[in-house]
């Protein structure tokens, strides 16, 4: 395993605040991607009183070799109480912005779209001023399911690209690069008032030209917001890190993305798809959608 450079050190969290968030999550029997996917920013986000909720999990129906979410357990039936429990957590944490994501549920006819809708509606009822971001799977290309989610009008529709087209078979063997772009294109077409977002990881063997092409492809389908971060190997059984990208190169990718017309590009070694997601509230004031 490649030795991590100095710039990937994470600031130690204030465990009192972290413990409070964890206590609420345990009390309401909720999962977070922060914990399930071993996110390096868990301390910072929990200290800030934020979390990315992982619904319909924690077992995933796909086995992406970069991801630390469990795929060996059998997915369970959907829990009808989950949306209300999630809404109560948002209320107890007093979140201004909430990110709701899920494992892949390819076993469900709609990929879990109905559960996303139930969660959006429950949060809206409990916290009407909270903005909602959904980070969704590709739904196996079920565009009716996508339309169902968009009809609930989350403020942000996020779907991660993860890597460049050439590496899809290696990194996302059950995914499809063109399907990801099509999902984002259709989201812009179906709900132009909803901000679209995606994210990519670096350090898996991609070239600079391939990264440029991926960013250009995302802008071509109207993607508004982009995150760019460093891939970190969760365990020895996962994909190896091919290279560590220095902070100044992330700055260059941010500038390139802004030159393409993204409303926001968050790029740094520790950036993840939901990192500083609450900043979208300010962007909505600067670039209102009606």
Question: What topology emerges from the helices and strands here?
Answer:
Elements: H1 15-27, E1 31-32, H2 33-36, H3 42-47, E2 52-55, H4 82-93, E3 97-102, H5 113-126, E4 131-135, H6 143-151, E5 156-158, H7 168-171, H8 177-190, E6 195-202, H9 208-220, E7 225-230, H10 247-260, E8 264-267, H11 280-286
Give a quick summary of the entry.
The protein is an alpha/beta fold and 290 residues long.
**Helix/strand-derived class?**
alpha/beta
Task: Tell me, briefly, the overall form.
Answer: globular
Radius of gyration: 18 Å
End-to-end distance, in Å? 48 Å
Strand content: 5-15%
- Provide the domain count: 1
The succession of helices and strands, N to C, reads: HEHHEHEHEHEHHEHEHEH
CATH superfamily: Aldolase class I
Mean pLDDT: 88
The appropriate CATH architecture is Alpha-Beta Barrel
* Spatial order of the strands forming the largest sheet: 1-2-3-4-5-6-7-8
How would a crystallographer describe the biggest sheet?
A: 8 strands, mixed
- Compute the number of helices: 11
Oligomer: single chain
Low-confidence stretches: none
CATH topology: TIM Barrel
What helical percentage do the residues reach? 25-40%
The beta-strand count equals 8
Give a written overview of the molecule.
It is a single chain. Helix 5 links the parallel strand 3 and strand 4. This protein has an 8-stranded mixed sheet, with helices on both faces. It is built from 11 helices and 8 strands. The longest helix has 14 residues, at 113-126. With 290 residues, it is of the alpha/beta class. It has one domain: Aldolase class I (TIM Barrel). Helix content is 38%, strand content 13%. The protein has helices spanning 15-27, 33-36, 42-47, 82-93, 113-126, 143-151, 168-171, 177-190, 208-220, 247-260, 280-286, and strands at 31-32, 52-55, 97-102, 131-135, 156-158, 195-202, 225-230, 264-267. The model has no long low-confidence stretch (mean pLDDT 88).
């Amino acid at each position: 395993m490649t030795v991590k450079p100095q710039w990937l050190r994470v600031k130690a969290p204030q465990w009192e605040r972290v413990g409070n968030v964890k206590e609420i999550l345990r009390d309401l029997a909720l999962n977070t991607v922060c914990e399930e996917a071993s996110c390096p920013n868990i301390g910072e986000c929990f200290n800030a009183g934020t979390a990315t909720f992982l619904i319909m999990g924690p077992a995933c129906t796909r086995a992406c070799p970069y991801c630390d979410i469990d795929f060996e357990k059998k997915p369970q039936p959907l829990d009808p109480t989950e949306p209300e429990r999630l809404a109560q957590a948002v209320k107890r944490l007093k979140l201004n912005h909430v990110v709701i994501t899920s494992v892949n549920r390819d076993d469900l006819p709609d990929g879990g779209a109905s559960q996303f809708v139930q969660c959006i509606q429950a949060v809206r009822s409990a916290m009407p001023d909270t903005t909602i971001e959904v980070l969704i799977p590709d739904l196996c290309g079920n565009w009716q399911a996508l339309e169902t989610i968009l009809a609930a009008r989350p403020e942000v529709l996020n779907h991660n690209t993860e890597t460049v087209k050439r590496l899809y078979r290696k990194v996302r063997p059950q995914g499809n690069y063109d399907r990801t772009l099509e999902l984002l294109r259709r989201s812009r077409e179906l709900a132009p008032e909803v901000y679209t977002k995606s994210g990519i990881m670096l350090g898996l063997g991609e070239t600079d030209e391939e990264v440029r092409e991926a960013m250009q492809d995302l802008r071509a389908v109207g993607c508004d917001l982009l995150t760019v971060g460093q891939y970190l190997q969760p365990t020895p059984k996962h994909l190896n890190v091919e290279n560590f990208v220095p902070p100044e190169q992330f700055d260059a990718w941010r500038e390139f993305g802004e030159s393409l017309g993204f409303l926001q590009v968050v790029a740094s070694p520790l950036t993840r798809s939901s990192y500083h997601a609450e900043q979208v509230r300010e962007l909505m004031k600067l670039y209102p959608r009606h």
